[in-house]
Amino acid sequence: MHFLRNPDRMKAIRFFLFLVLVLSLVCVFDIISLLAADNNNWEKKRLASMETALRSVEHRLSSDSATRATDTIHEKGTSSLSKKTATTHPKDKWQIDPFLKFQLLDSFDTNRDNSNEDTTSHFLRTEFGVKGKRTRQVDYKLSGILYGFYREGSAVTKKLNLELAEAYLRCSWDKFELSVGRQKLTWGKLDDIFILDIINPQDFRNFFDLDKNDRKIPIWLASLSYFSDNQVLQSVDLVVSFHPRPNRLYYLDEDFAVFDHIKETYTKAAPSAADIINGINIRDEKDAIAFDDMEIMTRFSFYFPSFDMDLIYMNKMDNTQILYPLTEKGKKTLAFLYNPSNNTFNDLITSSPESEDLSIDARCSRIHILGIDGEGTIADWGWRYEGAVIFNKRWTDDNGLPVEKDAFIQGIGIDNQRTDFYCNFQLLHQRVFNYSALYKQKKDMLTIFTQSYWQSKYGYIKIGLDSAFNTQFHDWMLNPYVSYSNQKGLTISLGAQLFNGPPGTLFGTFRDQDYIYLETKLDL
């Protein structure tokens, strides 16, 4: 009952339930209007269900559902189909299509385990702009993103941000296609697993609240594709990135930060050391990457009767930053951040650190990648594979210090769509060569991902469950949800994100941050 006597929590519960009630009424009204429709409308729904079935086939034959299928049309040899279709137009003309994608997610912490956790949070993301084409020769996109986070008690995230999203021009002629500007590219075959689909960095600040494509951060690049008439070699792609960026994430004193609320926790526990703890500063170099850090990536795409495959080489900056101490005493700062305990805390305080000792640099290193991927079908099952050898990758050892080791990462996925039920299983295996003790990393690691959902006859109601489980650390994540979608681009979802595992593991770190959410999306 103490839970219910908390006025702040009761206020949050009432607000959350009010949102559920309002959006439930919207769903009920929409469903009633559908049931009252005439037979012609039901026929339209049957056509819509056929479109849904087609989308599931696209999902089975690609690794990022409809978004990835659209990207693939532009990026691989299948674009020759669109070129042939374009010739049926009597003349070329410009097309301008405005679009809007709106997402509002309200979440509520199921159990406030410490005073630093934020009970309620609100996440808003709106992408807007125009896109279009001049048939066959030119297409373009210009868009912006307005996003904001509001969390109870968090001064960092109580503001809106507006930034340029994608802004590119793509030109096609004969067997070539050139795309220049700020954009997203999709390579690789797997869903929600990042092995070869790493041209764009990711926004991990709200990792669990965004779809894979929405997590991608657009970067400035040029992409040149050559489409071959060869029966086997379909296309060759060359990509040059002019301004690479690292992944976005929180380091300190935010929910889902790398080091959680460590500064707030230790400041309250030891007020006399507040100046030292508050002086810890992680300097993100995302704006310091120079023109010399240009990236070059190439892909050769092949087609065979029963499957297709890609061979990939990347010379790029690692999207994942590694922390570097600036002084000898700075090593004690890193040791405290990565392994907070009475011992590491006392070592840091007794060393009498200066401001430079408390400053940590977050840096990207250059890596080389040789990769291969493939996808195909066997009976009613679709399969996908990605594998990559990564050279010169930086890791963090048990003391929080950077070390360089090569690694091999591979993933395989199988999925099946039977009428109204879809299931998807993916395995991710990672091996580190010349292994020594690393932070949150074994020599071999195997993670199992699952996606499954049941969808009603006409695609309006979906009930699903996503999960992840690491076999080495036995930490896991569950995402049960139910959603309603209509043909006007509105989707309303109610679900939960649940985490568990030993302290220090990926999902175990968030074991006290389970939350339920109500999400509204509008795609126009």
Describe the structure.
The chain is 21% helix and 43% strand. Mean pLDDT is 81; it is low at 1-5 and 52-90. Helix 9 packs antiparallel against helix 10 (342-350). The chain is globular, with a radius of gyration of 25 Å. The strands form two sheets. The chain has an 18-stranded antiparallel β-barrel. A three-stranded mixed β-sheet has the order 8-12-11, covered by helices on one side. A hairpin with a 4-residue loop joins strand 19 and strand 20. By secondary structure, the chain is an alpha+beta fold.
Topology:
Blueprint lengths: L1 H4 L1 H29 L3 H22 L4 H11 L3 H8 L10 E13 L10 E15 L3 E14 L7 E15 L2 E8 L28 H4 L3 E9 L5 E9 L20 H8 L4 H5 L2 E4 L10 E10 L2 E11 L4 E4 L4 H9 L3 H9 L8 E5 L2 E13 L2 E16 L5 E17 L2 E12 L11 E12 L5 E10 L5 E10 L4 E11 L14 E9 L1
Parallel strand pairs: 8-12
Antiparallel strand pairs: 1-2, 1-21, 2-3, 3-4, 4-5, 5-6, 6-7, 7-9, 9-10, 10-13, 11-12, 13-14, 14-15, 15-16, 16-17, 17-18, 18-19, 19-20, 20-21
Helix pairs in contact: 3-4, 4-5, 9-10
